[in-house]
Specification:
The protein has 241 residues and is α+β, with helices and mostly antiparallel strands. It folds into two domains: 25-114; 115-229, Immunoglobulin-like (Sandwich). The chain has helices at 22-110, 171-174, 226-229, and strands spanning 120-130, 133-141, 150-162, 165-169, 183-187, 190-198, 204-214, 220-225.
């Protein structure tokens, strides 16, 4: 059987498949690489800008935190200074009030229109010292005989309750170890006599009695409610019944 000459005849050049030129491949690769680099540059630019903005915001936040801390500290210092000032003013007010009270007392005592009185306990003040101890300040006056000097001894007695029963503590009970005869005084117009007493545990004081035993003269007594004597203003005495 004769072969078909169509199967062995060479194909004309115009019918062969065309292959791309190597330079076209290179140009395509360069174009792809350029596009990739451009995309990476765009991403880097955006990330860098966002990073710069974040750093700026962080710096601003740090600055604001520092300002808040500084203002808070300044406010604290101002508050402390204001409290100190208020305390100082309160102390000055107390000193002024005490001085005014002293001036009024001196005017009543030695003024030309003051009433002359014999030896008396003008006032008594009690201040707690802790653990049953109390510090007393007794103001003694005498204007009846302004040329004379009053001398004698002062003693205290305290009435109160303990274990549901009324009880009276004498000077020897309040100061069992010293000054058994009383605290000495000596003055011409007035004197503030100070000392300490000790109350036993469980004793509730109600009233304090003051006795002045002048040399060569009858004793002088005065009494004060304990609550008044232990207050801020020393009360004036009232005669014992």
């Amino acid at each position: 059987m004769a072969e078909d000459p169509r199967y062995h005849a060479p194909m004309p050049d115009s019918q062969l498949p065309e292959h791309p030129h190597p330079r076209a491949h290179l140009a395509l690769l360069i174009l792809l690489a350029a596009a990739l680099l451009f995309g990476l540059w765009g991403v880097w630019t955006v990330v860098g800008a966002r990073g710069g903005e974040a750093a700026t915001v962080g710096s601003e936040l740090d600055g604001l935190r520092q300002q808040v801390a500084t203002l808070a500290r300044s406010d604290q210092v101002s508050r402390e200074a204001n409290q100190d000032l208020q305390g100082t003013l309160a102390e000055r007010d107390e000193e002024v009030s005490a001085l005014r009270a002293d001036v009024a007392f001196y005017e009543r005592l030695v003024g030309s229109t003051s009433q002359r009185r014999g030896l008396t306990v003008h006032g008594l003040r009690l201040q707690p010292q802790g653990e049953g101890a109390w510090h007393f300040t007794a103001t003694l006056t005498q204007t009846l005989n302004r040329a004379a000097v009053s001398r004698g001894r002062l003693t205290l007695a305290v009435e109160g309750s303990r274990n549901g029963s009324l009880e009276r503590l004498e000077w020897s009970d309040l100061r069992p170890q010293d000054d058994a005869m009383g605290a000495e005084y000596s003055f011409k117009y007035f004197q503030q006599l100070e000392g300490d007493i000790l109350l036993p545990e469980g004793f509730t004081p109600l009233r304090v009695h003051v006795r002045l035993a002048p040399v060569g003269a009858p004793a002088v007594d005065g009494s004060f409610p304990w609550a008044d004597a232990a207050g801020d203003v020393a009360p004036r005495s009232s005669p014992d019944a």
